[in-house]
Write a sequence for this structure.
């Protein structure tokens, strides 16, 4: 655990909190605010487009590799700007009304859902509230790009696992703050006041950025075009680059399938109550944090390659606990154990896999390459697992979770080439 005593870790903890803070402000908190304001359900659904910048952030990530601001260095300067923009946009959003969406006259025929959705989408696009919320998401996604690059550049390889773990710890703490405390406060205070208070917390993030250790100076690409082309050219010049991309997509797909269906399974398959589920969600969060911290410390001792092997196998085996729970049925003790096992192993895998992604990035193109790799991982986490519900209905829960183990095997097999146990990885 000595690796966590490095002064850089405190800065990464603060930046993790700053990165996690805006996420729910454009997702769950925003939905609650709109619901409380009596906004039409279709309009609330259309507001999910606010989060689009998180999926498209790789499109403008080369800008942060190409240009260095004249203060605080290549990464901290951009962190300062994006955090300042978050402060302004979150506070501005708190002064806007989420209501008053003017829906066009009902010209849609009965059952014409597409027409109705497009009408509500038009109403959303005419709202200043939507565009300011989109600016919050854009600033947040931009902060994530630069924070990931800063974290990668400031840490030696041996400390990347621990740095990733401490960053995730801060990120999770921010989600507890906005996902737990904010909702509790909403029973007493209006959402506009809560947003104002959370927005002002970005002042602390700016202070953290100001005092954070400077990263090593690295030359930027010669032109903006080069900042788009050079990172791709450099990456595909590596041997087995296509295997690396396959591995990034497949390594955690089994875990993604389980996480995608965990809540419906626990509610409908195991028939737990919502109160019990709330307890398990909290327990799972703690287990994930512990697993991430343990995994981060272990990476510094085992190395990235061995950690990927060990954590990947444990992550895969942990899905057996879900299959056993599906076979046994309603059993609170086994459900409690299952959540702890799966989330702890998922935390281990998060630390090792994040360290691997960081290790893959060339120091001159960190922002662009990390954004591309993380977007590729997000596709497997969010898109490839999308048919999971239909599969579970067809084959049943026990076979579903056993199938998730089988789908984890290609990612483990690829480790032979991309991260051999006793060899050098392709970073």
């Amino acid at each position: 655990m000595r690796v966590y005593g490095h002064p850089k870790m405190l800065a990464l903890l603060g930046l993790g909190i700053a990165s996690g803070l805006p996420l729910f402000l454009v997702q769950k908190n925003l939905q609650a605010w709109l619901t409380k304001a009596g906004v039409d359900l279709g309009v609330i659904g259309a507001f999910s487009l606010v989060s689009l910048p998180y999926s498209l952030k790789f499109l403008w990530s080369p800008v942060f590799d190409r240009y260095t601001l004249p203060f605080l260095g290549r990464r901290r300067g951009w962190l300062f700007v994006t955090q300042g923009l978050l402060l302004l946009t979150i506070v501005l959003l708190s002064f806007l009304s989420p209501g008053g969406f003017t829906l066009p006259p009902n010209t849609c025929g009965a059952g014409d859902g597409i027409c109705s959705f497009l009408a509500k989408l038009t109403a959303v696009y005419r709202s200043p509230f939507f565009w300011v919320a989109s600016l919050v998401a854009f600033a947040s996604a931009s902060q994530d790009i630069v924070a990931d690059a800063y974290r990668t550049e400031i840490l030696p390889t041996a400390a990347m696992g621990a740095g990733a773990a401490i960053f995730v710890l801060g990120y999770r703490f921010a989600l507890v703050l906005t996902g737990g405390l904010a909702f509790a406060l909403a029973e007493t205070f209006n959402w506009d006041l809560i947003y104002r208070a959370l927005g002002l917390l970005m002042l602390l993030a700016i202070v953290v950025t100001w005092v954070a250790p400077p990263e090593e100076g690295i030359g930027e690409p010669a032109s903006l075009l080069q900042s788009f082309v050079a990172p791709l050219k450099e990456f595909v010049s590596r041997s087995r680059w296509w295997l690396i991309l396959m591995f990034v997509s497949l390594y955690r797909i089994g875990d993604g399938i389980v996480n995608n269906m965990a809540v419906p399974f626990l509610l409908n398959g195991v028939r737990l109550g919502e109160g019990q589920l709330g307890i398990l969600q909290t327990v799972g969060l703690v287990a994930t944090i512990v697993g991430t911290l343990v995994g981060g410390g272990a990476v510094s001792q085992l190395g990235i390659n061995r950690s990927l092997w060990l954590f990947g196998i444990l992550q895969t085996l942990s899905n057996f606990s879900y299959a056993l729970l599906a076979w046994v049925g309603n059993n609170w003790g086994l459900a409690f154990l299952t959540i702890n096992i799966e989330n702890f192993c998922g935390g281990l895998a998060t630390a090792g896999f994040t360290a691997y992604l960081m290790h893959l990035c060339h120091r001159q193109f960190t922002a662009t390459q990390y954004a591309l790799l993380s977007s590729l991982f997000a596709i497997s986490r969010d898109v490839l697992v999308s048919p999971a519900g239909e599969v579970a209905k067809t084959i049943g829960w026990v076979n579903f979770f056993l199938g998730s183990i089988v789908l984890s095997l290609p990612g483990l097999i690829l480790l032979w080439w991309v991260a051999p146990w006793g060899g050098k990885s392709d970073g």
Remarks:
- The chain has a mean pLDDT of 83.
- Residues 1-220 form a domain with the Growth Hormone; Chain: A; fold (CATH 1.20.1250.20).
